[in-house]
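Quick start: what a row looks like.
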Amino acid sequence: MGTGSWRDVLSRSQMHGILEVLESCCDVDDPADYKRTVVESIATVFRVRDVTFFFGPTFADIFADPAPLLTGAASPLLHEYHARWRDKDIFALPEARRSLTDTGFISLDHLHALPAPQRSYVEDYLHPHGMGTASALHLRLADGEALVGMFDRERSWDASETLAVQFLARQLRAQSRSIRLAGDDGTVDQLSSLTPRQMQVAELVSDGLSNNEIAGVLSLSEFTVKKYVSRIFESTGLKNRASLTACVLRRRPTV
């Protein structure tokens, strides 16, 4: 479909929203900032409650991303997802992959009869956590591919909205050809999803400080610091302070 055809189908407000997302993401080349900008702008423009960003060097690797950016109801579910559900993800189905890589966007409503594992993913994983609907936007970057997941309690994407997101995906792909989300050694930055405060705690952990010492530095209770450290491990998939320290040190510039 040519550009003129898109303009004939999409409303003025939809075109304005697409431009808003593209302008927000333009010239953002820092990996963590790029993920957050894509997630936040899509959540705002398309009024999506929970948005996620998973990245991998290939499509199949996307679902094993150790440090995706998660928001809302999806945020505390990373460990459960990796432990039980990532091989049952509906967007890993061949039908979904074909549609995503071709058109750039697909929703659960667009998929045909789901195999039993994927039905379980929807009924036993998404629904109990308040995610009644699921959609995904596919991106191609300089060093891999990404899926931007979109989840709501209730949401139906009509034909016009579907075309709008497909058009956005096409434009974002063109815009992000030079963006690299992996590190220089080809590994994903496991700390890219951390908030500034979580990163501050991670830095102090890497300096060898105990939770009690970190609490003193940041004027927090030790219990609050423990919660920060637990959430850091949950968000990154890291298992202990030593692996967290190694990730932090890899991020620091060499002198």
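That is the whole record. The longest helix spans residues 159-175. The mean pLDDT is 88.
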